[in-house]
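ok so I'm stuck.
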Amino acid sequence: MAAAREAFLTSDDAHVEEIARQAGVAIGTLYRHFDTREALVAEVYRQEVTALCATPARLLADHAPDEALHSFLLLLVEHASVGRGMGEALDSIMSTDSPVFGDARDGMERALDELLAAGVAAGLVRSDVTGRIVLRSLGGICGMRAKGWKEDAIHIATILYDGLRHDATNVQPTAG
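replied:
not stuck anymore, here's the structure
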């Protein structure tokens, strides 16, 4: 899995044969575990999301809630860069009934909700925003495939972070 992740990070069209070679296994061994390239991509993506969604507790233990939220926003941008190397395969997975993206969205929303709740409890973050809204706000820029997207996404994540902290103590929570 580490070889596949690295290949997808460094190449827009990583080949299964090269991944197997880098992992030190025969191509047949790889195909015994993953019958298609898309299955391998889906598993790498699922592992990336699982690791990402496990970070809020660690971030909250090490940082103030608002700083933990900012760090997580930047991790979301980094996560999007992993997906970019798997572009075509992820696109083909999206057109199937695979639950991989729905599960990923749900997990990221829950992670953001945890961080937002900690920030609200500390009086550092607005109370009228949900994880779903924050995730959607980053989704557009992270989904673009234009040159310089990552630098723009980092900048937008910081603007979003600043907005989430603006007037945190005077915002009334909204339903939804």
